[in-house]
Amino acid sequence: MIDDLLRVDIVGGPAVAILSVVAGALFLYLLIRRPTLRWLVTSVGALLTGLLLAVLIWFIVIRINHAFGIPIKHVVYFWFAGTLAGVCLAIANMWRSRWWRKVIAACAVLVFIAVGSLGINAAIGLDRTLGSLLGIVARNPITLPPPTAKPHGGPQAPPLWKTWKPPADMPTHGTVGTQIIPNAISGFASRPAGIYLPPAALVPNAPRLPLVVLMMGQPGSPDPSYVAGVLDQFAARHDGLAPIVVVADQIGDPNQDPLCLDTAKFGKAKTFIVQDVVNWAVANLNVIKDPRYRTIAGYSNGGACAMSYLAEYPNLWSNVLDISGEEYPGSEQPSTVLADIFHGDQAAYDAIKPENLLAARKIPGTFGVFTVGSNDLGYIPGVQRIAAAASAAGMSAVYYEVPNGGHVLPALTDGLAKGFSLLYPRLGLSEAAA
Predict the structure, then answer these.
(1) In terms of domains, do 343 and 398 share one?
(2) pTM of this prediction?
(3) Which of 65, 97, 124 is the last residue of a domain?
(4) 228-254 pLDDT, tens per residue?
């Protein structure tokens, strides 16, 4: 029951519409009272107060301080202003009213805040389910087909797209679910990982497929629906072929940022990804074991981790997909991280930054795609610097700006699409573009 509730679609589903109708009915109830001059002045004053507060907060937070670092859609402001106006109207109903009107007004405050939050989230579109918005993973255990005994053909074998013949009964879409990955080495308290199995993985005698380990942002959750939506489209064009994806949780507690590291404060997040997750995936998924066909990927916080892990462990994977990645772990509050985690040791902090890791070693033979929203002004310079550092270290690096992607849903989905369009030939899943 709880997992079903956490899986409710709060972007494309009816949740926002239903709550909006309830909120509208409550708004009308609170607005319509015995028509007196006092109530007219009170209600109009309450509504204007809410709207003025919205303008003031919006101006200070968005226009002056650029808190989000990217342009915010006007529809977000309308949701925000409507929420504050409704809350102020409900508060006005607390005075000179019957007890039941006070109770309804108190409930209305919660409804207005809920519908406003869902409306803003729907406008941004990054948290598709209630569980994702709350940072809670809904359990949906996936059935994993056993790995085939047949190994991958080796370096001289023809690419998979040349030899694969899909059976007639192959599913038209992949499947997603959750999997608890044992933390035997790290002890890191992660949330269940999301798993995506493409159509070609769901047939008897399935071929071994490339592995992608993907990490999402913070706050966020290991939700496989976004990458599944993108890869199902690629699979439809390439005979069901797509990578098997593990959306791993490098965060644990959604209210903290483990910084892609092993620390006493947050646990061994790095060891969890580079050992526990990789070992489990190779042992339990029908993936090609050759690291040449392995990709580490991430969005935002996960992008910083992805680049850090490839730079530090180039023997584990040969490809990286960095989507709107932070320039380095803790880049949003470096002074706090320096004090709390590195105890003021700037040299130790600098040593773990991807740009410095890349400067200390060469990684020829690796391939990377670095994407960022064209209007994501707070992230563009950092992504550009990391792409340049990767190229200087010997990586074949591609930098791409998602048109008007911001740091929200278009940046993620279009970044995934661009990344896989370039990765597919390298992973043997499609012919190289002319």
Answers:
(1) yes
(2) 0.83
(3) 124
(4) 999 999 999 999 999 999 999 999 988
